[in-house]
Amino acid sequence: MKNRLKVLRAERDWSQAELAGHLDVSRQAVNAIETGKHDPSLPLAFKIARLFSMNIEDIFDDQA
């Protein structure tokens, strides 16, 4: 699944580790989601959307 997570993280000048801390996941989990190797669980997707004050659909694209 394509996503804008890396771009959103960069806009805030956060490292993967910093984003992971905000989400209570590992840095490796953030990397796997950013690179499309892993799709986030629904609860994690909601948490990401809330963190960035966006809709899930604005971050994740399931058409890819």
TrEMBL record:
Keyword DNA-binding found: yes
Residue ranges occupied by any HTH cro/C1-type domain in the UniProt entry: 5-59
Domain of life the protein comes from: Bacteria
Keywords from the UniProt entry: DNA-binding
Pfam families: HTH_3
InterPro entries linked: Cro/C1-type_HTH (IPR001387), Lambda_DNA-bd_dom_sf (IPR010982)
Family matches, as PANTHER family: DNA-BIDING PHAGE PROTEIN (PTHR46558:SF4), TRACRIPTIONAL REGULATORY PROTEIN-RELATED-RELATED (PTHR46558)
Name recorded for this polypeptide: Helix-turn-helix transcriptional regulator
Native organism: Erythrobacter rubeus
